[in-house]
Recover the amino acids of this structure.
C-alpha cells in the first residue's frame, strides 16, 4: 500500500495522462475509475475507439450519463472480468481509486496484461504522490516498469511482451453451518466479502427464520452467502433469487450456489431491482453496503416492499439505524429490531 507520507492526487487524471501522451495509441481502454473522472479522462484522449470497463451496473449507468453530457461515443462494457473483453487494446489507462482495494489493483494489473495487444501499453494513474505500491506490482506481471520523472511517482507505464498464464486472484473461505457441515465460498476482489464471511451477513443468517418451500430474495448478495445458507432451511422445493449491481458478485453467487448444491435459484445483475414482478417473494434478505447512502438503503426498502407478497417479511441488517428507521417506517410501518454481533437487524412484515 502507499506509505503514510503520501497524499491524494492533486492533479486530474486527464492532466496526468498527457505526461505520457507519446504512448497513447488507439484503440483505448479505461479500467474502472469514478464516472466523472473517467468521462474527463476519455474526453482528453486522442481520437480513436475507446472502451470503458466497469464491474458495477450503478457505476456503469452514471458513467454513460457523464459521457452523454460530453457528447462522447465511448463504449462502456460491464463484465465480471476485464479479460472477458477481447485482446484488442493498444493502450489501457487505469485511473486508480483513492483508498481502493489492494487485491483489486493486483487483479486489474494481471487482467490488463491479457487484453492488451502484443507491445500494447498499460498506463496506471495512482491517486498518491510518491506511490510505492505499483512499481513492484507491475514489474511482477510486466517485467519492466517506466516511471516518468515529472509524474512524481503517480504515473507508471509498461508494455506487454510475450505471453503468460492467467492468474486469478481468488480466495476461498469456510463457514461452519452446523456441527458436521462447513461450506466453502469462493470470492474474488471487488466483491463485498472478499476472503471472509462478513459480520453483518453472519448476524443476519443467525436471525432469519424461514419455512420450507418459500421464495427468498438475497438482495445485495455479494458472493451469495445469505441466500445459500437460507436454502438449507428452504428445502428442495424452496427458491432463492440472488441480486446485486456488481456483475462479478453475481458470477460468484452463481458459482457458489451451483457448487454447494442449491436446487432452485436464479441470479440477476441489477441496480434498479425492477427485474421481477411485484409480490414475487415470501422473504427478502437485505444486506446494503456498509457505506450505502440513504438513497441506496431507500431503494432496498422501497423495492423490497413491492417485491414481497402480502404477509411477506423483510430482514435488513445495518449499522446505520438512524438512517434506516424512518425509511422503514415510511414504507412498512413500525419494525422489530434485533441486535447481534454489533449489528441491528430490522424485521418487518408486509401488511396483508
Amino acid at each position: 500500500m502507499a506509505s503514510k507520507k503520501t497524499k491524494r492526487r492533486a492533479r486530474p487524471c486527464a492532466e496526468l495522462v498527457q505526461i505520457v501522451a507519446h504512448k497513447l495509441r488507439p484503440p483505448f481502454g479505461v479500467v474502472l475509475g469514478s464516472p466523472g473522472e473517467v468521462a474527463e479522462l476519455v474526453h482528453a484522449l486522442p481520437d480513436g475507439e475507446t472502451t470503458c470497463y466497469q464491474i458495477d451496473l450503478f457505476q456503469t449507468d452514471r458513467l454513460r450519463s457523464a459521457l452523454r453530457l460530453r457528447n462522447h461515443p465511448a463504449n462502456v462494457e460491464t463484465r465480471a472480468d476485464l479479460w472477458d473483453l477481447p485482446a484488442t487494446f493498444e493502450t489501457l489507462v487505469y485511473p486508480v481509486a483513492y483508498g481502493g482495494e489492494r487485491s483489486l489493483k493486483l487483479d486489474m494489473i494481471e487482467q490488463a496484461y491479457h487484453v492488451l495487444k502484443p507491445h500494447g501499453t498499460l498506463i496506471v494513474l495512482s491517486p498518491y504522490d510518491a506511490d510505492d505500491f505499483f512499481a513492484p506490482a507491475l514489474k511482477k506481471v510486466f517485467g519492466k516498469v517506466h516511471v516518468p520523472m515529472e509524474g512524481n511517482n503517480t504515473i507508471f507505464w509498461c508494455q506487454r511482451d510475450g505471453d503468460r498464464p492467467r492468474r486469478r486472484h481468488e480466495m476461498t473461505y469456510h463457514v461452519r453451518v452446523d456441527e458436521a457441515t462447513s461450506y466453502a465460498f469462493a470470492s474474488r476482489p471487488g466483491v463485498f466479502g472478499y476472503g471472509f464471511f462478513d459480520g453483518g451477513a453472519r448476524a443476519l443468517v443467525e436471525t432469519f427464520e424461514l419455512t420450507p418451500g418459500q421464495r427468498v430474495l438475497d438482495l445485495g448478495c455479494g458472493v451469495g452467502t445469505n441466500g445459500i445458507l437460507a436454502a438449507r432451511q428452504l428445502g428442495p422445493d424452496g427458491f432463492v433469487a440472488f441480486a446485486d449491481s456488481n456483475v462479478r458478485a453475481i458470477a460468484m453467487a452463481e458459482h457458489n450456489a451451483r457448487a454447494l448444491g442449491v436446487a432452485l435459484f436464479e441470479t440477476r445483475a441489477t441496480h434498479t431491482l425492477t427485474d421481477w414482478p411485484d409480490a414475487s417473494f415470501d422473504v427478502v434478505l437485505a444486506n446494503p453496503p456498509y457505506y450505502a447512502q440513504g438513497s441506496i438503503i431507500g431503494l432496498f426498502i422501497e423495492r423490497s416492499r413491492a417485491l414481497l407478497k402480502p404477509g411477506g417479511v423483510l430482514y435488513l441488517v445495518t449499522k446505520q439505524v438512524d438512517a434506516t428507521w424512518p425509511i422503514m417506517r415510511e414504507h412498512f410501518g413500525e419494525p422489530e429490531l434485533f441486535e447481534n454481533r454489533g449489528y441491528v437487524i430490522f424485521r418487518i412484515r408486509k401488511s396483508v
Q: What stands out?
A: The two ends are 53 Å apart (CA to CA). The chain has two domains: 13-159, 199-349. Residues 199-349 form a domain with the Rossmann fold fold (CATH 3.40.50.150).
